[in-house]
Amino acid sequence: MAVERLRCRECGTEVPVGPVYVCERCFGPLEVVYDVEALRRLPLRQRIESGPRSMWRYADLMPVAYDPVVDLSPGFTPLVPAPRLGRTLGLRRLYLKNDSVNPTWSFKDRAVEIGAAAARRFGYEVLACASTGNLANSVAAHAARAGMRAFVFVPAGIERSKILASAIYGPTVIEVEGGYDEVNRLCAEIGEEHHWAFLNVNMRPFYSEGGKTLAYEVAEQLGWRAPDDAVIPIASGNLLVKICRGFQELVTLGLLSEAATRIHGAQAEGCAPVATAFRTGTEVRPVRPQTIAHSLAIGTPADGRYAIAAARATGGQIEAVTDEEIVDGMKLLAETEGIFTETAGGVTIATLRKLAAAGAIDAGGTTVAYITGIGLKTQEAVAAALPASVRIRPTLRAFEQAVLTTAAG
Amino acid sequence: MATIRIPTPMRRYTNGERLVTVSADTVAAAIAELDGRFPGLRERLIDGDGQLHRFVTVFVGEQDVRLLGGLATPLEDETEVSIIPAMAGGA
User: Fold this and answer.
1) CB A189 to CB B84 under 8 A?
2) Residues A20, A6: Cα–Cα separation, whole Å
3) d(CA B3, nearest CA chain A) in Å
4) Helix, strand, coil percentages in chain A from 3-state DSSP, rounded to 5
């Protein structure tokens, strides 16, 4: 249902919808305002269950109308039982929300669908973004689909596959000398001067609503139940906040009788401003990122304090893991469940392992780990940690000598 | 003279001006000078504890002042100071 108003999360000031993202009074974040009473009157469950097998089955709960021009049909990705990984970690009912199978192979497609539809609603002809790679891929693809121009800004030196997976769609790719935080700052300034729709700047109130579909889908796929524990990677913290909000809204709307999910956050030690603030009980302080998990390397996380509030309110934890643990996490997931995730997924699995070992997760309950992107985009991270293949002459003798003896040894 | 870039949500306090030059030699002094010319601006930038408001990021040149000397960060001649809403971005 298309929304008509935005409200400041901090001071409650309301403004009509438009391409604005901060409150003029207090600089707090603006959020979309739904007509909850009107939604409660709809037969929501029936409308959802008869909807398309994409995130648009939740169209009633989205802040913009469905726009086929930008639709690549992301979402409704598999919720996979993970018994082998669960046994390894001592968790009885572990599931993986495999969001690496979206149209551009990350969860970002969910946010961009909504943000791009909002951009068209506001009459923009150019899509742009500040990105660590995945968002750029998604913005470039959606712009191509809609016949719009795209400018995507990424830190210089990110994974080659993430550059290529944008370039193929024909946008202008700008590599900025600096990290994500510098890119973000530059984009905020460009957005002041040029009439472009920056998905995660001036479209942010709309764009960020996409993350909530990751809560809706998990609840529906579990038979309209919320999990007991959820583990979510933190970059800006927005995804965690929106998943938490998504479960709560399902209760408000009568689709769930309750949601007592403990919301856990996962960061890399080389960029852990949120985990650090969670542990020390202080405000989130900026850091200079240094980690292989480039897609989570935001040193000044915009939603950091809200992510901490969500974890605290639900009894969750926020933990950080080393680069070595991230690689181990990627390998563990691949070897036990056949899913090749990117470094961010390695952070999630390594954190899940740490939390399970510490007893922070109910071993007998239902746990969901969110796998947000595909491993083929971050091959550099694991290349050195994998064994070389066996190369042989095309003879049975060579095979038996080189392969069977090696395997037997 | 340093130049300060004013973001859109604050331009109604600067009569629509987006570039303002100041002679101050620190970030704190620049904010005081801005407030002298555009009363009310300080309140938008500084919280009750005298710190930068949590939703405001200030850059001196290419650097976030929180990674430099905070409000005491010195301004040199021709330095560009940018005020950016902290809620931008996110992955």
Assistant:
1) yes
2) 9
3) 14
4) 45, 15, 40
For residue A268, what are the β-bridge partners?
A271, A321
**CB atoms A23 and B18 under 8 Å:** no
Question: Tokens standing for A65?
Answer: 């109308």
Which stretches within A208-267 are classed as H helix?
213-221, 238-252
**B76 interface with A at CB cutoff 8 Å:** no
Q: Predicted ipTM?
A: 0.90
Comparing CB atoms, the residue among A189, A201, A305 nearest residue B89 is: A201
A361-400 per-residue burial string, b: 16 or more CB within 10 A, e: under 16:
bbeebbbbbbbbbbbebbeebbeeeeeeeeeeeeeeeeee
**Bridge-based pairing state of the strands A14-16 and A5-8:** antiparallel
Candidate from B57, B88, B90 with C-beta closest to A235:
B90
- Paired residues of A96 in beta bridges: A80, A369
CB of A294 within 8 A of CB of A159?
A: yes
Q: Could you tell me where the beta strands, DSSP code E, fall in A37-104?
A: 79-81, 93-98
- For residues B63-84, one letter each, b for 16 or more C-beta atoms within 10 angstroms of the residue's C-beta and e for the rest, the string is ebbbbbeebebebeeebebbbb
Asked if residues A303 and B91 have their Cβ atoms less than 8 Å apart, the reply is: no
Contacts 24+ apart (CB under 8 A), B61-68: B62/A178, B62/A182, B64/A181, B64/A185, B64/A286, B64/A300, B65/B27, B66/A285, B66/A286, B66/A300, B67/A286, B67/A288
What is the C-alpha to C-alpha distance for residues A292 and A343, in angstroms, rounded to an integer? 7
Distance between CA A161 and CA A146 in Å, rounded?
Answer: 23
Does position B91 have pLDDT exceeding 70, yes or no? no
Which of A249, A199, A236, A261 has the alpha carbon at shortest distance from A58?
A: A249
CB A220 within 8 A of CB A48: yes
Closest Cα of chain A to B85: distance in Å?
A: 6
Kindly state the helix (H) or strand (E) to which residue B29 belongs, with its residue range. Answer: helix B27-37
From B74's Cα to the closest Cα of chain A, the distance in A is 20
pLDDT in tens, A349-390: 999 999 999 999 999 999 999 999 999 999 999 999 999 999
Cα A231 to Cα A64: distance, rounded to the nearest angstrom: 28
For the sheet with A318-321, list strands across it.
A79-81, A93-98, A366-371, A229-233, A262-268, A318-321
Q: Do B59 and A185 touch (CB under 8 A)?
A: yes
Tokens found for residue A114: 């909504």
Contact with chain A for residue B66, Cβ under 8 A: yes
User: Strand A93-98 and strand A79-81: pairing?
Assistant: antiparallel
**At A300, which amino acid appears?**
T
pTM exceeds 0.90, yes or no: yes
Q: What is the pLDDT of residues A275-286, one digit of tens each?
A: 999 999 999 999
